[in-house]
Amino acid sequence: MTGAQSKEGWLTKKGHIIQNWKRRWFVLGDGSLSYYANVKDSRPKGSLIVVDGEVEPNTQDKKKECCFSVTGMNGAKKKTLVIQCESVRERDEWVKAMQSNVKGLEEEARHVKEGDSSDYVLPTSDKAGLDDFELLKVIGRGAFGKVMLVKMKATGELYAMKILNKEMLIRRNQVERTKAENKVLRQVAHPFMVGLKFAFQSPEKLYLILDYVNGGDLFAHLQKQRRFPLEQVRLYAAEMVTAFEHLHSQGIVYRDLKPENILLNFDGHIRLTDFGLVKEEMTPDAKTNSFCGTPEYLAPEIIDNKGYGKDVDWWSLGILIYEMTYGRPPFYSENTSQMYEKILKDPVRFPPQVKVTDATKDLILKLLERDPKKRMGCGDQDAKTIREHPFFEPIDFDKLMRKEIEAPFKPQLSGKEDTSNFDSCFTSEEVQLTMVDSHLSKKHQKQFEGFTFQAGSKLTEDEEED
Question: Which residues are in the Protein kinase domain (predicted)?
């Protein structure tokens, strides 16, 4: 059985309009070629569907012999990328891997039986599996797979199916983070967080069945509206306060707040998603040193490598409130090193052309306090002092938790299956599961034991084997 090869690495890409050359981190897998500004970025700068695409090495011009071009679908349009490698050998390796994707992609559904990719036998159960879902639309892509809108055949319920490539998780040392996300999603239940309904696996892939939230993410809505009015900012911020409060009470630090990770539901309320960077078992005084997160939202103590705790979440909330209010993060720079310097040293500036209440400015300043011991939300009080700030005076938090506060903005939706709030470059993709040529060993497969889950049941696959 021949499958689609996965590959990743630094390459230099020719700009489509300005035609300058930029170094990007490329990831090939699951039928798409995506490129990122940095290795750790979760959102690609661009992507191309290589199914039925064309890949051609440059053999005519000796000066460009290390280049190749790949043509595929970007949304509903055809697009060609011109890419330069360090050597002819590297070029040939990428061309071969890409041609494998073009020729070898098939529906994985025919190849998910036990032992199809290895001699490791997956635990069996009567829980939900791939055959229980109808695939409707592709609604997102990441470095390790894609997200699809699916319908459960037995109930007609809609869910988001997050599909992760095991081999790519192993190669990029993301297995533990994926398991942590699975674990956290199981244990937290909150009105403003995405919930996990099922989790299962094939020899090649992991499947997370999550709440389907169809209003789009805050990043997309910010791009359309440029900035949000006060009532909108206040509601989203209040809901984030309750979400962080709940996570912190469970000893969990989120560490990756940004507009892309906040989804808007049909009712206008938010749902926090993507728990891949969470840190567990964080007592009130515990510290960790891992450098992770999105540059614009990093707290000073993360950049300084001084050790940090839950207070980094409150810093990121301050950044989010500022961005929702003014349309961009307070310390933004295209140069990441300069941005870190700004985070460490620059004062918070409030553009005078945007009329903002004193309470809004005061809350932002107190959340963006560089000393975590003085930052609002620090210590045992955690969210209590933030809830009591004058900015949140109009909010009844008990009513908020019951969703009895009417949202000032609701996304336009024609029905439950409406995917218009998702990027058309995803929703226009052909709906299929891609077969991966993976031969993971027993040792590697064992890393994914305990992944299976069904909401409302405490039974895991580890217990099923007894």
Answer: 133-392
